[in-house]
Amino acid sequence: MNCELRGISLHGYLDGELDAVRAAEFERHLEGCSECLAELEAQEALRASLKQAQLRERAPADLRKKVVKSLPKAARAGGFALSLSWQRLAVAAAVVLLAGFAGWRVVGERLDVAGERLMAAEIVDAHVRSLQPGHLSDVISTDQHTVKPWFNGKVDFAVPVRDFTDEGFPLQGGRLEVIDGRTVAALIYGRRKHEVNLFVWPVSAAGDEAARASGLRGYQLIRWRKGGMEYWLVSDLALPDLENLQKLVAQ
């Protein structure tokens, strides 16, 4: 669900264009709207990253020599002043191209970070919804041979269901969730009196990614990719406990 204030007031608040009354109203709205809060945090992170990014790179000496060698012979042999002008122009052009490439690379990386924060906010929202009565599991079972077949025909990928009761993380069940517009599998594990959600879905990007931990609104998250699948763990567990479960799942 899209919040109406997300487009109306968020950017005005971010740019300092709201008056004191409207700014105070929007701040009160943020206390109860996770969508606007996540979007504001992402925009602030992106803006700060762009300000800090070094968007200039000096052309290496080898590139300067290659550019000069590629100039027409007449330009290189037409006198010191003309040659120097051409060289300076060529080097300047190379510097601009390199700076542009470096700048877009940095911007792309920052956008990836902002996108991951938005995804983390959506994961936390799904976890919080699951804790409401009757929302945690669609299939309730501690038997992985019951939970795994339940997903057949409901998602178009094989869900890696495993039970870790002996390691202190008993399987409690599973359900379907919608994350970032796609249907994903959610597996529920217990740890003492805490619930842990493991969200799983396939990705087209090649290569694995190491586990990365983060925190949002009092919850711990761990994200990683392995074997063409993306995994997100989320819980209010202490991070060391969540890291132990991540290692078990990733084995």
Structure description:
The chain is an alpha+beta fold and 251 residues long. Among the domains are: 4-52, no CATH class; 134-250, Phosphorylase Kinase, domain 1. Helix content is 49%, strand content 21%. The protein contains nine helices and seven strands. The chain has helices at residues 4-8, 10-14, 20-30, 34-52, 61-69, 73-77, 80-130, 144-150, 239-250; strands at 139-140, 171-179, 182-191, 194-202, 209-216, 219-226, 229-235. A seven-stranded antiparallel β-sheet has the order 1-2-3-4-7-6-5, sandwiched between helices. A hairpin with a 2-residue loop joins strand 3 and strand 4. The relative contact order is 0.09.
Distance between the termini: 36 Å
* Cα shape: extended
Low-confidence stretches: 106-111
User: Taking all residues together, what is the mean pLDDT?
Assistant: 79
The ordered string of helix (H) and strand (E) elements is HHHHHHHEHEEEEEEH
Number of helical segments?
9
Quick summary:
49% of the residues lie in helices and 21% in strands.
Q: Which secondary structure elements does this structure contain, and how are they paired or packed?
A:
Elements: H1 4-8, H2 10-14, H3 20-30, H4 34-52, H5 61-69, H6 73-77, H7 80-130, E1 139-140, H8 144-150, E2 171-179, E3 182-191, E4 194-202, E5 209-216, E6 219-226, E7 229-235, H9 239-250
Helix pairs in contact: 4-7, 5-7
